[in-house]
Amino acid sequence: MASNPTSSSTEPRSASVSIRTLVKEPAEAFSCPADILEDAIEGLAGCEETVLSETVCGGILDPNQVVEWVDRTKRLLRFRVDPEELRSEVPGVADELFKLLEQVDLPEDGEPAGELTTRFIASLVELREKLSRDVEAAYAGDPAAGGYDEIIVAYPSIRALAVYRIAHELYLYGVPLLPRIMSEYAHDRTGIDIHPGATIGDFFFIDHGTGIVIGETAIIGDRVRLYQGVTIGAASLRNAASLRGKKRHPTIEDDVTIYAGATVLGGETVIGKGSVIGGSVFLTESVPPGTRVMAEAPRQLVRGAVGDEDDEAMQLQWDI
């Protein structure tokens, strides 16, 4: 038997390690010069000078309240099925939504907060059905899925879509601010950026999801699959403000698959039914149904461990 080169004994040695703890005396409180402090306070105080100051002084909604409400509502859609639990949870969701709606400027010609709250509660069953179809799509589209439970609990795409379905419903009511706070919260948590104004059909599947961007006026049909890094965006113009309120984002018809890193831009761009858009494709024009669009593979140079060190083809070119 080969001997242990570090020890003549086969008995395990003690793994005890002496750890030295550095203890610092508490530092004295730092005292900033009085004139610097006063300049900072005077510069930050007041409601003039900047758009930020004027807006805050006018009163803004605490986004944490919105996050707490959408989390509670998302849990209701994903996990709550016990009737007794629902009898206490649904009224709580309604009450919190009503209070949030009272804090924003609803359209003058629209419904009041109470009626909007009632409409939203009436939509909960349909929202759950839509989310359930998204779960089905994820299971059908991802061979790595171990079951519906894994998708419901673990998949970031389902978390993002749950928030999107909720936010989109409120967006359709004309509710300002709240839907956007919700969608940016989901973006922050999952890396999936879906504007609440986007229209997305049933059985929508996002695989992995990080880096997905779907713009406000995008229209996405049924049974569409997107992979990580896909952008469904708007073509940029210098005078971008002139496009506000117009369709700026593509239409993706039913049964389309768009692979990782692809970019599809423009309000007039339509990806026809059943098309497949390959990874890293850049599209600003429409394609008819059943189209396959693939980016030309880049030329790759591979050299083994032994080779000509002076091979010019393998040298980086830095001259621009």
Describe this structure in words.
It is a single chain. With 320 residues, this protein is an alpha/beta fold. It folds into 2 domains: 60-192, Orthogonal Bundle (serine acetyltransferase, domain 1), CATH 1.10.3130; 198-295, UDP N-Acetylglucosamine Acyltransferase, domain 1 (3 Solenoid), CATH 2.160.10. 38% of the residues lie in helices and 10% in strands. It is built from 8 helices and 14 strands. α3 crosses α7 (156-172), α3 (63-79) crosses α8 (178-190) and α4 packs across α5 (113-141). It is globular, with a radius of gyration of 27 Å.
Summarize the structure.
With 320 residues, the protein is an alpha/beta fold. The chain has eight helices and 14 strands.
Give the distance, in angstroms, between the N- and C-terminal Cα atoms.
63 Å
What's the total count of β strands?
14
| Annotated CATH topology of the largest domain | serine acetyltransferase, domain 1
The H-and-E topology, N to C, reads as: HHHHHHHHEEEEEEEEEEEEEE
For the biggest sheet, the summary is: 5 strands, parallel
CA gyration radius, whole angstroms = 27 Å
Strand order of the largest sheet: 1-4-7-10-13
SS element count, helices: 8
Secondary structural class: alpha/beta
